[in-house]
Amino acid sequence: MIRYILAFVCMCGGVCLGIAADVGQSSLALSELQAKWKDETLAPEVRLASARVLMSHVSKETGQLFALAQEAEDMGKQESFPDAVLFGKMCAAVAHQVAGDGQQALKQLRNAHTYAKEVDKSGVRLAPQWYDQMGKAWAAIGPLDTAMYYFHLGLNAYKEVRDSLAIAKTRVNIAVIHARMGRFRLATSALMKALEEFRAKGDRKEEHLTLLNIGELSARRQEFDEALSYYEEALAIENDGGWQADSAALFHSMGNLYYQIGAYPTAEKFLSRSMVIREREQAWVPRAHVLQDLSKVFVKEGKIKEAEQLIKEAEQVYQVYQNPFGMLYLNLAYAELYSELNSPLEIKKHATKAHKLAESLREAPAELLALGYLYKADSSLGNYQEALNTHLAYRNLEKRLYSKEQAARVAELQIEYESEKKEAENQLLKQGMESAQHKLTIQNMLITMGLIGLIVVIGFSFGLNQQFRARQKTLVALRAAHQEIKAVNGQLEQRVAERTHELEQRNEQLEGYAFMNSHRVRAPLARILGLIQLIHMPGNSPEQVNEYLEMVKVSSEEMDEVITDINAQLSHQLDKVK
C-alpha cells in the first residue's frame, strides 16, 4: 500500500513519483536538493517543489521522512502556506507506513483530510492538485466514498481554472472508483467524457490508455464486440508511430478479452507477448498481473502445473512489493485453479482470503467473485447452512450494487439536466440582451437623425452664429445619449452576471441535494430488503414472521419520513428557484 500513497503524495501538476525521481537524479544531487529545501531566502513554492523531489530520494528512510514532514509543517505555518502544511501531514503518513505502523498512517491521513476541509471552509484555496492526491490516497486505503468526494472537489477546482486536460484525468480517476464499486456503466460514461477531452487536446497517449480502459469495462459487461472495437482503435493509434504506446497494456487487455470469449489459444498468444514486454521493461508488478491472467488461460487449456507455477511466481512479486490488490486477485486465481482440480478445501481457503481483502479494499466486483467461490466450496463440503448464508450475501451485494448504480445514474442525469437548463437560460438572457441592444441602436439612430434635422432648421433660422451654438448643444445631447446607452448596457451586463451567479449557486445546491438524498433513502430500503429475505426463509415461526413484519413497518415508516423530508426540501428549493 505504501507505494500507492507515496506516488500520490509526490505527484504535483501531473508529475508522478517515477518522473520526479528521474528529474531529481538527472538535474539535482541529493545534497543540492537538501540545500534548496533549507534555503529560507527562496519562495515557499520553490522550496516545496524541492521537498517533493527530495521525498522520492528518501522514501525508505523513516527518520528522514519524519524530519521532512515536521519541517514542511513548520514552514507552512510560518509562511501561512497551507500546501506545505498538507504536504507535511501526508509525508508523516508515508513515514508511519514505512515504519510498519498502518494505524498511525491512517490517523495522519485523516488529520490531513480534516485540515484540508478546514482550509477550504476558511476561504483559502488549495492548489487543485491536492484534491487529486487526497482522492488517490483515500482510494488506496478506503473508504471509496471519501476518495470520490475529493475527486469531485478536484474536478470543480479544475473547471474553475478551465484546465481541460486535468479535468479529463480527474474523470479517469472518478471512473476508476466507479468501476471498483461495480458501477461499470457510470465508469464508462466518465471515461467517454475524458476521451472526448483527450482527443480535443490531441493527447494521443492518454487517448490510447482511455480506449484500453473503456474496452476492458465493455468486456466486463460482456459486450465483446464493442470491447474489440475499442481495442482496435487503440491498436490503430499505436501503429501511427507518432509516439511510444504501451503495447504491453494493449496486448494484456486483448488477451483478457479473448479469454472471456473462450478463444484460449489467441488469449495465450497476446498475454505471452505482454509478459515478454513487461519483462524487458523490468516492470515486475505489471508482469505479475499478466502471469496471473495467463494462469487462468492455462487452467482452461488443462495446463494445471504450468498455471500453478505462474501463480506462485506472481505471488512472490506481490509479497516483495506489498501489493494488496495483486494478492486479492491472486487468491481469486488460486480459487479458480483449485476449482478445476475439484479441491473444495483449497477453494474455501483462498476464497476466504480474497473475500476479506475485497471487503477491506472496497472491491465490490471481486467480493462477488469471492462469494461465488465460497458458495461452491461450501456446497461441495456439505456446509449447506454456510452455503445458504453465502448465497444470500451474494444476492444482497448484487442488489445493492445495482441500486447504487441506479441512484448514482439518477443523480448524474439530474446534474446534466440542471446544467442544460442553466445553459438554456443563459442563452435566453443573451438573446434578450441582444434584442435590447438592437432596440437601443435604433433609438440612437432616430435621436441622431432628429438632432441633425434640428441643427439644419436652426442653421437656416438663426444664421451662422446660431448654427454654431446649435451644433454645440447637439454635441452635448449626443454625449448624454451615448452615456445613457452605456449605462443601460452596463445594467444589462450586471443583470446577466447576477443571474448567471444565481444559477450556478442553485446548480451546486441541487448537486449536493441529489448526492445526499441518494444515500438517505438507501438505509431503510436496504433493511426492508434484508427483512423480506428473512421472511421467505423456511422454518420461521408465526411469531418470528410477525416480528419481521413489524420491523418492515418501522423501516417503511422511516422511509416515508425520509421521502416526506425530501419532498419538503425539494419544494423549498423550487420555491427559491421561482
Shape verdict: extended
State which percent range the strand residues make up. under 5%
Question: How large is the count of helical segments?
Answer: 23
Structural class: mainly alpha
Rg, rounded, reads 32 Å
- Main β-sheet, in a few words? none
- Kindly state the percentage of residues in helix: over 70%
Can you give the mean pLDDT? Answer: 76
How far apart, in Å, are the first and last alpha carbons? Answer: 50 Å
Number of extended strands: 0
Q: What is the H/E order?
A: HHHHHHHHHHHHHHHHHHHHHHH
Catalogue the unreliable spans. 1-28
Written overview of the protein:
This protein has 578 residues and is an all-alpha fold. It has 23 helices and no strands. Helix 12 (204-220) packs parallel to helix 14 (247-260) and helix 19 (344-361) packs antiparallel against helix 20. The two termini are 50 Å apart. Mean pLDDT is 76; it is low at 1-28.
Quick overview of this protein structure:
By secondary structure, this protein is mainly α. It has helices at 2-9, 17-27, 30-38, 44-57, 62-79, 82-98, 102-122, 128-141, 144-161, 164-180, 184-201, 204-220, 224-239, 247-260, 264-281, 284-300, 304-321, 324-340, 344-361, 364-381, 384-520, 522-535, 542-577.
